[in-house]
Every structure is written in C-alpha cells, then in structure tokens.
Design goal:
Structural class: alpha/beta
CATH topology of the largest domain: Aminopeptidase
Distance between the termini: 102 Å
Helix content: 25-40%
CATH class of the largest domain: Alpha Beta
Number of helices: 13
CATH architecture of the largest domain: 3-Layer(aba) Sandwich
CATH superfamily of the largest domain: Zn peptidases
Largest sheet: 8 strands, mixed
Number of domains: 4
Length: 515
C-alpha cells in the first residue's frame, strides 16, 4: 500500500510539472511550433499520431505543431525539442486587386466570392457549405457553362488552406476564379474548361484559423481551427476508423464530407504551404495505389511545368518536386486519403511555397510559376477512360461499378454517377480489360486502349437480367444437326437405343428410344 501511494504521488508531481511547463510555453497561444531531430521513420510514424507534423519536415529534422494536450503527450517521449517563433506576417499596404499581391480581409473575401457569382451568373454559382460558430462562412464557387445542371462532364475540386496559416493557395485560388471567369469566351483554355468541366473552387477551408486574431488581417493566423484541432487529421481513416485523432468531427470536416456526399468528385487537389512539392497517395500506408504510374505521370507534369515557369530552385523538394506521401511521412486522418479511399476521387496534396504566408508582393510570382500547372491539372480530369452507362432496353442512365480486375485495389475502382450515368477512370497509357457491373444486370468486360493526356470514350449498355418481362421474342426453331449413340457412332437405327442429339443452337439432349 505504501509503495502504491509513493508512486501515485510521484506520477502526480510529474503531471503537475509538465502541465505548468506547458502553461509557461504556450502563454496565450492555442498552438506552438517546434522542431526535433530523429533517425528512425517508425518513431516518427508513432509520434505523428499524437502531434501534427508539418510538411516542412525532412529526413533529418521534424517540424510540428501541437496544442496543449498533444504537447503533453509528446513530452512523454523524452525527445529534445526546439521551440520556433514563426515570423509575424506584415500586410502589404500598397497592394491592389489588379496585381493580386495581398491577402484580403475576411469581409473582402466574402465580397469577392459574391461578386464572382453576381458578375457571371450564367457560369458561376456561390455555395455556402455552412456557417461556423464564429460567423465565418465556408464558401465555394461552382463554375460551368450550364452551372448547376448535371452534364456528361467530370466534377473537379480545388480547396485551399485547411491549415489556416498556409495561405499562398488562398490568394491563388481567388485569382484562378477571377482569371477563368474573365477569360471565358476569349481565352481558349479557360473557355474549354468552363464548357467541359464542373469546377468547384474553395479558396479558404479554415477561415477561423486564417482570421484567428481578427477579420481584418491574417496576421496571427493559426494552423488549427478555433477548437485547436488540425483539420487534416480529423477525417475518417483507412485503418484507425472514423475518429483517428480522438476528436469529434469538426464542423469544417462535416461540411466537406457532406459536399463529397452530394457531388461525386472525380479529381481534386488540396492546397497547402510549408514545402514545394506535389504529394500523391497514399499518406496513410506504404501500399502503392493501383494507379501509381498515373500519379507519377500527373505529378511530374505539374512539377515540370512549374520548373519551366519559375526561377531555378523552385518546386524541387524531395524527388525533384514530387513525392509519395507515405515515403515522406505518415498522416492519419488526412483528407487526401479519405477522398481517395472512401469517395473514389483522385485527390492529391499540393505544397506551393516554403514560406507558409509569403509577403503579398511575392504572390504574383507564385501565380506565374503555378498557374499553367493548375490549369493542366484541371484538364487531366477530362482525360482517361470515360463514357456513359445505360440500360440496354430503356436507355436510362445507371449507377454502375467500373473495375479493372487484377489491377484495381484499395478502392481504386470508380462508379458512374446519376442522373447522367457518366464515369471517369484515370489511367496511365496502356491496354486494359474493364468490367462494368451492377446488381440485377449482366456484367460486361471490354478490352480498351488508353493514351496519356487524351480521352478515350466508351459508352456501355448493360442488360437487365429480367429484361424479358412483357416482351415476346420470336425465335427460330432449333433443328437436329447430328445424332450419336453412347459410343459416339452416328445413329442409323433409332429404335430401342440411347441417342445423343446435338441441335443447331449448340444444345445437347439425351434420349432413350424404345419401340
């Protein structure tokens, strides 16, 4: 009993000391930024379940964020760490919208989004995915030639800054919306995108983090949301279940899950900062996706184009600007893997700048370096294998499974989408056997060739297994082609013997003839 009391007392002192230390470290902050050295990836994979590792991390040093609860857990590893004071953002006082060289206030952001829809009502629609407790709205614009009308075209999603202090993409997405809308009818690429793609663009996925101090400036922006939760660890996880971070789904998470339930996105990208690299799945485990070759093709296209349009040294982190997520470090509860695994959408993570909030004066440079790549990535949604799946008798569109047997794994198959019945399957150049199936219908497998950066259209009609109800078919009567006895001899005398008849339709019948 004495021993138990002794150890209980010591444990209490340890917790009290750590809690006091945390209070001194955090002050009035809700999160801190720090770094530490490491030499074993397995150690980092374990720690990444506790704290939020930053994309600035490399193979020798880890950079990470933590709230008070997370940091207390981290201290139990007894790892030396260095606190980092992030530079205070200074707004550009001589900025103009024509140059897109500044970060707007929250109210200006809302006005900009509304003005896009008001100025281009035939091709742009503003949606509010929900309002947070702070009053901040989760805004997204939809752009298409027949906006709001389902068509035979892919649905594409760009969303930026789910980490509130990673804001390069915030302004680049606002500018992308502006450029596409104003270029419609005059710029052939923009016009084609509007005509051929159902585009959704959300410039700011964490407004509470971006405007953590006040709505007038992003100075003091935080990575986490208002509840000190990392939104990119808050999604259902492939292995760890619905709440991998131990937190309930945040309002922001629920809003995006609801959006993905409502719109079957085919291709997407999640924009961040802290590095300069195109990160493709998986983040959660070492398995390669079924379409790893396609991901490498698409990510290399993005990086190579960025290299052409930027200064030397830009966008060359890790493998010359591209990386498999897990090879970099493991993420649990990330949105990229959630979209790929649970929503059958090809989503990547894009890191735009090493500086999380670069000076406003540098934003035009990042636009010039990335805008061609951003457009190319949207264009990728129109390529690959695509078509419409319908009922062979009624012509009605079907929601059917599109699968490549022996190739697809880990939810890499896709489904056609109603009310159109269109499907979009992204594949690297090659020959494939594609199976189309739906309960109650006869499956169909078709050989098809796919080329890089081109669309292969394959419309498919599936036959209902019960499609003969109410329909009468006139069939040609079948005739006997040959008759054999049980020894395989041609039958001449058909009395008192066993005969085997083969018919014109290929069927076989045994008969015993007795007279």
């Amino acid at each position: 009993m004495k021993i138990i009391l002794k150890y209980t007392f010591i444990f209490f002192l340890t917790i009290s000391f750590s809690a006091q230390e945390i209070e001194n470290i955090f002050g009035d902050k809700t999160e801190i930024y720090f770094s530490f050295d490491y030499d074993k990836k397995k150690q980092i994979d374990k720690i990444s379940k506790i704290i939020s590792i930053d994309h600035k991390s490399n193979r020798l040093k880890i950079y990470a964020y933590a709230n008070k609860k997370e940091f207390l857990e981290f201290l139990k590893f007894n790892i030396d760490y260095q606190l980092i004071e992030e530079p205070l953002f200074k707004p550009n006082t001589s900025s103009t919208r024509s140059n897109w060289d500044y970060y707007p206030s929250y109210n200006e952001y809302v006005s900009l989004m509304q003005s896009f829809a008001d100025s281009f009502p035939s091709i742009c629609k503003l949606h509010n995915l929900g309002t947070l407790n702070s009053g901040h709205e989760m805004l997204i614009v939809q752009i298409s030639d027949n906006v709001g009308v389902p068509e035979n075209e892919p649905s594409f999603l760009y969303t930026s800054s789910m980490h509130g202090n990673e804001l390069t993409g915030y302004v680049l997405m606002l500018r992308l919306i502006d450029e596409i809308l104003n270029g419609y009818g005059s710029n052939s690429k923009y016009t084609n995108l509007v005509n051929e793609v159902d585009m959704w663009i959300n410039p700011l996925a964490n407004p509470d983090g971006a405007y953590a101090v006040n709505d007038n400036s992003v100075s003091g922006a935080t990575r986490y949301n208002a509840n000190s939760v990392d939104l990119n660890r808050n999604y259902p996880d492939i292995l760890d279940g619905p709440n991998p971070d131990g937190n309930p789904w945040q309002d922001e998470t629920v809003m995006f899950i609801n959006l993905a339930d409502s719109v079957r996105f085919n291709l997407a990208c999640n924009l961040h900062t802290g590095a300069e690299v195109f990160n493709y799945p998986w983040d959660r485990w070492s398995n390669l996706t079924a379409d790893d070759d396609w991901w490498q093709h698409v990510s290399a296209q993005y990086a190579d184009t960025a290299h052409v349009n930027s200064n030397n040294g830009y966008f060359n982190d890790l493998n010359n600007g591209i990386t498999n997520g897990w090879d970099w470090y493991e993420i649990n509860g990330g949105r990229q893997d959630f979209m790929n695994y649970f929503k059958f959408c090809r989503e990547a993570t894009l890191e735009l700048s090493s500086n999380k909030i670069p000076p406003g004066s540098q934003l035009p440079y990042y636009w010039n370096a990335n805008s061609p790549s951003l457009i190319n990535y949207i264009e990728q949604s129109t390529y690959g294998l695509r078509g419409v799946i319908t009922d062979s008798i009624t012509g009605n569109p079907l929601e059917a499974k599109v699968e490549i047997i022996g190739h697809d794994v880990d939810s890499s198959h896709v489904y056609s989408d109603l009310p159109v019945g269109n499907y979009h399957r992204y594949l690297v150049q090659g020959n494939y056997q594609v199976t189309f199936s739906k309960n109650g219908y006869k499956s169909k497998t078709i050989d098809v060739a796919v080329n890089n950066n081109l669309a292969t259209t394959l419309d498919v009609q599936l036959s209902n297994q019960n499609n003969t109800v109410g329909i009468e078919f006139q069939e040609n009567p079948k005739t006997i082609v040959n008759s054999w006895d049980i020894l395989g001899r041609s039958v001449l005398n058909k009395k008192n013997t066993i005969i085997i008849n083969t018919y014109s339709d290929g069927s076989v019948e045994k008969k015993i003839i007795i007279e």
